[in-house]
Inverse folding.
C-alpha cells in the first residue's frame, strides 16, 4: 500500500529535508505519494513531480495552508490519508508540530524520529538523546511516522514525471492565527545540511567573540552552530543550537570550539563523519567523541587556525 | 484562569544511561531521577502567571509509578496549588497519556494545559499535540515567550528557521521550550509546606480509556561506538591531518 508524505516547503520551493524524507518513505513502500498543501504553490508541486521516487503529487492550493498552522493542516492530512497505510513527514519543527495531531485524531500511536526502516512496520529510533537505539514495531493499522532527515540521503531531484492531482481544501477552525515569522537570514549554508559545521560554546565567553567562529566558518564555507549553553547565555540565537533540544547535524566535518560536550550536545552531532574538538580542558567529554582533539586556548588557537587555512588554497566548496 | 501543568519523572539529564545486556531497555535501578527539564519550565511559567495575578490556580499532574509524586511535590514546592497523581505501574505511550490527560481536563476544566515540549527519555515529542487534537484545542509548541490576553494567548515559538509568533484562542495547549524561563529552586520551608498541599490520587486503570500500547519494543541497543581519536599537538598538525588524512578540507 502507498505511503503519503507531507511536503515541507515555503510555497515557492521544497525545503531540503523533504528530499531526505522522500528517500525514507520509499524504503517503507515504493509507491510514494506527496501532499503539497500551500498557497500559490504550483511551482512546488511541479518540483515534487520531478523527483523520480515520487509516483503521485496531491496538491491542495488554498489560503488555509499558507503558514502550516497544525490546526488547519491536520484535518486535510486526515482526509487525504484515508487510502494510505503510512503517513510520514520529517521530524523537524514542521513534522513534530502537526503529525501527533493527525495520529491522535486517527487513534494511532506515532513512531517519532526514525533513523532506519527495517520493514513496513518496523523501525529504529534513537531514545535517551541518541544514547540508545530502539527497534520498534507498530501494531496500528495506519502508521504515523516522522523521519530524522539527516539519517537518510536526499532523493534525486530530477528525471521523474509523477502525476499531479488536485485536492479540495477542508474547513478550518478559526482558533489560531499566524502573526509573523522571523527567519534568521544568513549567507552561510543551512545548519541542517551544511558539509562543514563550526560550533562555539560557553568557552567563547561573549557574543562578540563568535566572530572568531564566523571567520573560520566563512573560510570553510561552513554553517555556524552553538551549544545550548552558548544560546542560553545569549551569545547567539536559538536557531544555531545543536543538540537533543536543538538541531541534529551530520556534516562531513564538525568543529566544536569551547564546548565541553554535555550529553545533550553530543546527541546532536556525534554522528558527524569527522569531529574536531578545541578545548583548553583536556578532560572535557567532547574529546571522547573527537577524531582530532586539540587541547588549547581557543583565543590563540582560532586565529592560528584561520591563518593556517589561509595558507591552503584548495579549500573545497 | 486555571492552568493544568503536566510533569514527568525521568532519568536525570546528567546521567549517562546504560543499556541492559538483554536488550530489553535501559537500567533504571539506583539511577538518579528528576523532573523532565522542559516540564520544569512549564511549572515555572504557570507559577509566574499565578504570581502576576493573571492565573488563579495551578494544578500539577503526573502519570506514573508512586515515585512520580516526587515531581508533583517539586511543582507544589515552587508554587503549584494542588497535585493529581495518576498511578500507572508500566509504560504508557504518549497516545494513552494524552487520553488520561483529556479525562483530567474534562474534570478540572483548566483554561490552559502546559507541558514540556518533549520528554528526554523516549524523546517522542507527541503528548501536547495529541491532547490538543483530542480536545480540539489550538496548540503552541516549542514556546519561548507567552503573553496572556483576555481570551487568547500570544506565543513566540522556536522553529527551525528562527522564531514564529501566533495568537491562539483559549482554552489552549502550550508546550514549553527551555528558553521560556529560568526554573527556580524550591526553598526548604516551601518544600515542607508543599507536603501539606492536597494531592489527589487516581489510578490509570480506572480512567475508562484504552491504554493498550500499540508499539512493541523489539530491542534496545547501544549506538555504534566511535573509534577513539587522537590528540594533536598544534594547530598546524590539526590542519595537516584534516587535509591529508581525513581529507575534509
Amino acid at each position: 500500500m502507498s505511503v503519503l508524505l507531507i511536503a515541507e516547503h515555503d510555497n515557492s520551493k521544497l525545503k531540503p529535508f523533504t528530499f531526505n524524507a522522500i528517500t525514507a518513505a520509499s524504503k517503507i513502500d515504493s509507491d510514494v505519494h506527496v501532499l503539497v498543501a500551500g498557497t500559490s504553490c504550483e511551482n512546488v508541486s511541479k518540483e515534487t513531480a520531478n523527483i523520480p521516487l515520487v509516483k503521485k503529487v496531491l496538491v491542495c492550493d488554498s489560503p488555509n495552508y499558507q503558514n502550516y498552522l497544525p490546526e488547519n493542516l491536520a484535518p486535510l492530512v486526515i482526509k487525504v490519508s484515508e487510502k494510505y497505510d503510512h503517513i510520514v513527514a520529517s521530524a523537524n519543527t514542521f513534522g513534530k508540530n502537526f503529525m501527533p495531531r493527525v495520529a491522535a485524531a486517527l487513534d494511532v500511536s506515532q513512531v517519532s524520529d526514525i533513523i532506519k526502516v527495517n520493514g513496513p512496520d518496523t523501525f529504529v529510533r534513537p531514545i535517551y538523546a541518541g544514547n540508545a537505539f530502539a527497534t520498534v514495531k507498530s501494531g496500528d493499522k495506519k502508521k504515523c511516522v516522522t523521519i530524522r532527515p539527516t539519517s537518510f540521503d536526499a532523493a534525486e531531484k530530477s528525471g521523474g514525471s509523477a502525476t499531479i492531482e488536485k485536492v479540495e481544501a477542508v474547513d478550518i477552525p478559526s482558533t489560531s492565527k499566524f502573526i509573523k515569522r522571523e527567519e534568521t537570514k544568513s549567507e552561510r549554508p543551512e545548519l541542517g545540511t551544511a558539509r562543514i559545521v563550526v560550533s562555539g560554546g560557553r568557552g567563547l565567553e561573549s557574543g562578540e567573540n563568535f566572530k572568531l567562529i564566523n571567520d573560520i566558518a566563512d573560510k570553510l564555507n561552513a554553517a555556524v552552530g552553538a551549544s545550548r549553553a552558548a544560546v542560553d547565555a545569549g551569545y547567539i540565537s536559538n536557531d544555531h543550537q545543536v543538540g537533543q533540544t536543538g538541531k541534529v547535524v551530520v556534516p562531513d566535518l564538525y568543529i566544536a570550539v569551547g564546548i565541553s560536550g554535555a550529553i545533550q550536545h553530543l546527541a546532536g552531532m556525534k554522528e558527524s563523519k569527522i569531529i574536531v574538538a578545541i578545548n583548553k580542558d583536556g578532560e572535557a567529554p567532547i574529546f571522547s567523541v573527537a577524531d582530532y582533539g586539540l587541547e588549547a586556548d581557543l583565543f590563540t588557537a582560532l586565529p592560528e587556525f584561520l591563518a593556517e587555512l589561509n595558507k591552503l588554497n584548495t579549500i573545497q566548496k | 484562569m486555571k492552568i493544568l501543568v503536566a510533569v514527568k519523572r525521568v532519568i536525570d539529564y546528567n546521567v549517562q544511561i546504560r543499556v541492559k545486556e538483554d536488550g530489553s531497555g535501559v537500567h533504571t535501578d539506583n539511577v538518579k531521577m528528576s523532573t523532565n527539564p522542559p516540564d520544569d519550565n512549564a511549572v515555572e511559567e504557570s507559577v509566574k502567571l499565578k504570581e502576576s495575578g493573571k492565573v488563579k490556580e495551578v494544578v500539577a499532574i503526573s502519570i506514573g509509578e508512586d515515585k512520580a509524586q516526587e515531581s508533583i511535590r517539586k511543582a507544589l514546592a515552587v508554587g503549584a496549588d494542588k497535585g493529581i497523581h495518576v498511578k500507572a505501574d508500566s509504560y504508557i505511550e504518549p497516545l494513552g497519556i494524552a487520553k488520561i490527560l483529556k479525562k483530567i481536563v474534562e474534570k478540572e476544566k483548566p483554561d490552559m494545559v502546559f507541558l514540556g515540549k518533549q520528554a528526554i527519555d523516549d524523546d517522542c515529542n507527541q503528548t501536547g499535540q495529541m491532547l490538543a487534537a483530542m480536545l480540539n484545542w489550538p496548540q503552541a509548541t516549542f514556546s519561548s515567550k507567552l503573553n496572556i490576553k483576555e481570551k487568547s494567548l500570544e506565543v513566540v515559538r522556536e522553529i527551525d528557521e528562527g522564531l514564529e509568533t501566533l495568537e491562539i484562542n483559549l482554552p489552549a495547549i502550550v508546550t514549553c521550550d527551555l528558553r521560556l524561563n529560568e526554573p527556580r529552586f524550591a526553598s526548604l520551608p516551601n518544600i515542607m509546606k508543599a507536603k501539606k498541599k492536597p494531592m489527589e490520587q487516581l489510578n490509570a486503570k480506572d480512567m475508562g480509556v484504552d491504554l493498550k500500547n500499540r508499539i512493541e519494543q523489539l530491542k534496545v541497543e547501544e549506538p555504534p561506538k566511535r573509534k577513539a581519536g587522537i590528540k594533536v599537538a598544534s594547530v598546524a598538525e590539526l590542519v595537516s591531518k584534516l587535509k591529508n588524512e581525513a581529507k575534509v578540507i
